[in-house]
């Protein structure tokens, strides 16, 4: 049984914005699940609707075997961390953490015992009597996590939990969050618009656009085989090369190169058909001598990324970017060839990935 089962979940806000459009989703027990997508695609609405902070316009929400679609938030057994943490400024750290237990009318001793334990677990020991205004961003975030976890919820919902932290703290907090989720094994759904964060943390990712899921898969699946051009252009810290091509006799003519159509997709394309070829800059090797099946052109831009650089080749009217290791240093004006790695060129028709029949 899934921990979260959404069927035809729809949310239309007053005014007519369809933030969730008949969405189906199954999140497995103990899974660390990311909702990823551009601003306004409906990620926060999905999380808030599962938490019960928004009412679904249509469809159902099951948590375990219970239909919670019409239950108020307090009876859904979920812990939520908000983007701005939403801590009570006038309360101490300990009282903030203990708050969900107060709502559940637990006795004072039990409340404080459990809150102190959660504080200790989240490395907040010694800070229990401070108020949120006297804490760093990272500490405030851990208080919000402790408060969400103190009542041992069945589901943990995190809305952009790392977005208020600076770049370095963010990396630390990311590792911390991953370890915490592994240790507790609690089913967790987190919202992010940062694809690197989703790829690094999640067991599976749903990439959303306009209230729908455009692809659902592991980080490796969505990175290696984006199901459509929307996901292909959204995922990846360097954008995927997307080049127009034409099928001809078992090959694709694209950006001056002739590439074989992958064997398993040969039966799915027709001669003369227009396609889009997608290949990630990371899956191209740079060569300074001509190579078969390579995109040949002239280096126009070199951007240093640290241990590698992103090199742009002008190939006729097309541009092809390649991630080049530090052992090579092409310069603008040099001739160069970008050699696709076997099996790494994807073909798209009408915006959708062509897969073998
Ligand atoms: P972001 O990454 O910017 O937080 P999001 O993916 O979380 O975006 P939502 O906040 O879920 O997106 O919003 C989805 C759509 O619903 C947007 O078009 C937004 O303008 C609209 N929306 C959100 N909340 C409301 C509301 N209370 N009333 C009306 N429309 C809303």
TrEMBL record:
Ion transport is among the record's keywords: no
A molecular function (GO) term: ATP binding
InterPro entries: AAA+_ATPase, ABC_transporter-like_ATP-bd, ABC_transporter-like_CS, ABC_transpr_MalK/UgpC-like, Mo/tungstate-bd_C_term_dom, NA-bd_OB-fold, P-loop_NTPase, Transp-assoc_OB_typ2
All copies of domain ABC transporter, residue ranges: 4-235
Keywords: ATP-binding, Nucleotide-binding, Transport
Keyword Nucleotide-binding tagged: yes
Stored Pfam families: ABC_tran, TOBE_2
Protein name, per record: ABC transporter ATP-binding protein
Organism: Actinomadura fibrosa
